[in-house]
Amino acid sequence: MVKSKVWTLKQQFDGQPKSSDFELVDEDLIPSIGSLEWKLLVYFQYCSESGYEYNTQFYFSEVLVEAEYLSVDPYMRVYKKETGKPMIGSGVGKVLKSANTSYKEGQKVFVNAGWRTHAIVSDKHSPYEVRHLPPLGDLPLSAGLGVMGMPGMTAYFGFIDTCKPKIGETVLVNGAAGAVGSVVGQLAKIKGCTVIGFAGSKEKCDWLTSLGFDHVFNYKETDVKTALNKSAPKGVDIYFDNVGGQFTVDALPYMNTFGRVLVCGAISTYHDGSPMLMPNPFMFILQKKLTVYGFIVTDVLNRWNEAFPEMLLWIQQGKLKFRETVTEGFDKMPEAFFSLFSGGNIGKAVVKV
Ligand SMILES: NC(=O)c1ccc[n+]([C@@H]2O[C@H](COP(=O)([O-])OP(=O)(O)OC[C@H]3O[C@@H](n4cnc5c(N)ncnc54)[C@H](OP(=O)(O)O)[C@@H]3O)[C@@H](O)[C@H]2O)c1
Fold it and tell me: Which segments constitute the Enoyl reductase (ER) domain (predicted)?
């Protein structure tokens, strides 16, 4: 019998997520992977009695994974979740047992099984998912959740592949010291652009300056209009938007004609119960003839392999730096999650299980 600790969603979020929305439970993983043969017998019997075809792949593909790092991400606030079920999310960890020829015991893997310490996952026919890690070289395992994982791929495909930056263009990115934004700004520098970044503290702004951002503003101290009047005299060509809401309303007038806007996220609005009433942005989209992209990184999951070699090379060459905010302890999953909405993280937020 394998025991797992699991954070379940006790009730749907209402406004800012809070501790009472979660419950920490113990779960017995039954049948454990050790009883595969038993499961198989029952299944064969069931199939022959009911006339179904055997599907042995389902049973032989299972892997028992122990999480080492779990990710906390803003999407967990807005994606659909079921009450009483494990909180959604992914992690990286070690294969403890395997009945799958693609995964060996002791191997490190990516696992998408929610907020849990242990999971039995399959690469086929399972609500949960196990995947091979990207090439990490000497990077820490947790980088598979950050710069070489979902946020890094969001930056790569959202910015390079979708916005197609050109040398000399001006790029605006908000949430700039976060997992996605910090990579976007550095990719923009690699591509020869001028970068304007907005973040929520002096420490974050100092880090962005050290990364080579050309103009950095603490949006809590300098309003967007004042900042862009100063830093974007020739206007903005690419706006990579992680924040949405009023920031976007204030930023759009600074876009150049035929500029590109990548709508990556809108974290400033995630707790809003009802739609915010704001000036209509479509007049600016019309007047400036902007191209606005909606982008979801999982739509290009089958292309992530294209980005890994270049991203790893840039990291190894020191052109792309990354930072993590590591919260220690599975018990602290909710706190680490809340912290995303109060700006507590610099770079990728992860929990060391
Ligand atoms: N489209 C996709 O496929 C995709 C994939 C990944 C992420 N995203 C989106 O991209 C954005 C960034 O995600 P991430 O994983 O990189 O998170 P992150 O930036 O590492 O963490 C969230 C950060 O957002 C900032 N923030 C929180 N509330 C804010 C507010 N009201 N106004 C302005 N800033 C606020 C905080 O930094 P400050 O201290 O600077 O305020 C916080 O540290 C999110 O909107 C997320 O939903 C989209």
Answer: 55-351
Q: Are residues 124 and 64 in the same domain?
A: yes
In-domain check, residue 318: no
Q: What is the DSSP letter of 331?
A: G
Decide: 278 in ligand 1 pocket, CB within 6 A: no
The CB of 252 under 6 Å from ligand 1? The reply is: no
Element (H, E) at 310: helix 304-316
Would you state the pLDDT for residue 56?
Answer: 45
Question: Which of 180, 217, 219, 249 for mutating ligand 1's site (highest number of atoms within 8 Å of CB)?
Answer: 180
- Calculate mean pLDDT across residues 346-353: 98
Whether residues 18 and 43 fall in one domain: yes
Q: Strands, E, within the chain: which ranges?
A: 2-9, 22-29, 62-71, 91-98, 108-112, 118-122, 129-132, 170-173, 194-199, 215-218, 236-241, 255-263, 291-294, 324-328, 348-352
Residue 44 has pLDDT above 80, yes or no: no
Q: What does the block give as tokens for 75?
A: 């999407």
Q: What is the DSSP letter of 178?
A: B
Could you tell me the CATH number of the domain that includes residue 118?
A: 3.90.180.10
